[in-house]
Structure formats: structure tokens, C-alpha cells
Amino acid sequence: MSALLHPRYWGAHLLMLVALAATILLGLWQLSAWESARAAEARDLTQRPAIALTSALGGDDPFPGQYVGQPVSLSGRWVPGSTLFVSDRPHDGRDGYWVMTPVAVDGGGGSVVPVVRGWSPRPEAAPVSGSVELTGWLQPSEGSNQPDPDPGDDVIPEMRIASVTQFVDADLYSAFVVARDASSGTTGLDGVRPEQIPEVSSLTSLRNLLYAFQWWIFGVFVVYVWQRWCRDSLERRTTEQQVASAA
Question: Could you list the residue ranges that cross the membrane (predicted)?
């Protein structure tokens, strides 16, 4: 095997390394393009035109999966004395709280939807009341079932609809809304983005993913050809040595 380290073989080894590195890097480039395209489409879905909340789901309907991250519009009235704070919500490198206040939705048959008004570094926010018109992103209930260390206070560990029902005496939607634009209720709070975004089609940018695998298959083929070349070179050198010895 040491014979393959002879300087006359260095060019072939270098060519193999360059070809292998090229196939790996080109595959990673196509994989990155696939991931970027899917992320861009997910962002685009959150920028779709808003639809009325009442047309997306009713007060007693289960959450419609196709509307994750869908911008919705609604009008109604803030439910006074029902603001809750969702803990452990990072924002710009700081830990803090989502500020959530339910809204009694106009045309919602008396149902109430939790609305994340914004972010605060402390579980504090100015009280809100009266009418409101807002646009935001529709989100399904969170459900990791984190325990609430103090069920009696106004801080909850996650934005779970079942947790909100303990504080609001009304029928709740099976979703919540992260406010994007609101006529009231967001003053003094930092805006937040939805944590759950729309699922992207499995066919999105599929060509880039297939190209990535294609380049890596080429890389495997490069290694195979190099191994065959090494074996043939060793056999040829052995034959030459045997012929020289016989002579």
C-alpha cells in the first residue's frame, strides 16, 4: 500500500480529493438552498392577506391545521380583569413574558379569543378595556403540559387554552392570536412574532434536495473509482515487479 504514496501517484490522489470535496460542498450548497427556500415560503405564508377570524373557525370548532400562522382580523371588546402573563418567552436575548388579554369577538356568538398583545420584561402591563380592532397570526394551543408552579397567580407557563379557561368565564376559541396591528392594547409592549409557522409543502424546493443527494452519490462514485484505480495500480506494479524479478 505504501507504493501508492510514491510521488508519481500524488496527482491522482489530489484529483480525487478535489473531486470529493467539490461533490460534498456542492451537495451542502444545494441542501442549504432547499432549507432557505422552505424557510422563505414559511415566512411568505405568514404574510398572506388576513381573513376574518370568524371565517377561519367558530367558537366551538377544533383548530384548523391549515391555518397555522394565518393572518386573521377581528374586532371586539377586551375582557377586563383577565390579563395573563406567559412566562419564559425570550425576546432580543432577554427573558420575559407574553402579555395576553382575551377579546370577546364581534360575531363570535359570545366566544372569546386569547390575544397576545406583546412582550414585557416583567409580568406587568397597563390594563385595557373597551373596543379593539386588530390583525394578528392565528396559533394553535400550546400543549407541552408544563406544570404551573403557582396556579393562583396570573402567570402561566405556556399559552394553553385549557389554562386560560380557569381565568375567563366565557367560551374560548380553540386558538389564540398573536397581535400584529391593533387599535389598542399594545402601547408600551414589544411586538412578538408567532412561534408556530405554517407547514411548508413537502414538494417545496424538492429539486434542490434531490440535487444535493445527487452530488453526494457522485462523491461515493469518486471514492469507488479511486479505490479501483488504487487496486489496479497496485496489481500492475506487482506484476511489473514479478516480471522484473523473473528477468
Answer: 209-227
